[in-house]
């Protein structure tokens, strides 16, 4: 018999994240394209972003036939959050300008690149990137390269720039709770022994 789970956050009832999950408005629209391999990931931070943002949508798959119609919405100016030589730094959007439709691939770097390859319409979008030097709060895993963030952290950092001075840090509360829960499950001593060099000073 399957264990009961919260229908909203999909966590067991005694670890439900809904009380920690905000419901934040934003001018920007966030479209997350999630590779299917990420859907059952223990953290699944893309889902946390969808739950915490009023103007966010999560789609799961490899080929998204509906993308051209989604990107053609005249109410928004679409861009792709993905690093690269041609990516431009994110800048605040002026109040009288069209809000941003921020397209965010969700997966490992290899899977994210596959999403771009399988959906050529994404190549036609302007690319934007986050500032260098950002550090992930995911203390249980060493980032594969400098500046690598979880999908949720990347979305928070992007919205903090696009909609400055508004802040979206509240989206990280359930993410932090998940990490602390994993640390508690493994035990503090085991965590220190295996991950002590990754823990941030608090």
From TrEMBL:
Q: What is its EC number?
A: 2.5.1.25
Q: Does the keyword S-adenosyl-L-methionine apply?
A: yes
Q: Name one GO molecular function term.
A: tRNA-uridine aminocarboxypropyltransferase activity
Task: Extract the coiled-coil ranges from the record.
Answer: none
**Location of the DTW domain:** 2-187
Q: Which InterPro entries match?
A: DTW, DTWD2/TAPT
UniProt similarity note: Belongs to the TDD superfamily. DTWD2 family.
Please identify the protein, giving its name as recorded: tRNA-uridine aminocarboxypropyltransferase
């Amino acid at each position: 018999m399957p264990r009961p789970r919260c229908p909203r956050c999909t966590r067991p009832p005694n670890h439900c994240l809904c009380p920690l999950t905000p419901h934040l408005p934003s001018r920007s629209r966030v479209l997350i394209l999630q590779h299917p391999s990420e859907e059952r990931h223990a953290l699944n931070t893309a889902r946390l972003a969808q739950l915490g943002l009023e103007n966010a949508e999560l789609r799961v798959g490899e080929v998204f036939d509906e993308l051209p119609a989604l990107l053609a919405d005249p109410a928004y100016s679409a861009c792709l959050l993905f690093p690269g030589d041609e990516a431009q730094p994110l800048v605040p959007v002026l109040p009288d300008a069209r809000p941003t439709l921020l397209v965010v691939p969700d997966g490992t770097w290899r899977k994210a690149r596959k999403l771009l390859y399988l959906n050529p319409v994404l190549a036609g979008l302007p690319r934007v990137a986050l500032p260098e030097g950002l550090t992930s709060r995911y203390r249980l895993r060493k980032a594969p390269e400098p500046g690598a963030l979880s999908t949720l952290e990347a979305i928070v950092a992007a919205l903090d720039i696009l909609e400055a001075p508004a802040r979206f840090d509240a989206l990280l509360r359930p993410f932090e709770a998940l990490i602390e829960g994993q640390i508690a499950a493994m035990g503090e001593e085991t965590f220190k022994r295996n991950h002590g060099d990754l823990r941030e000073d608090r």
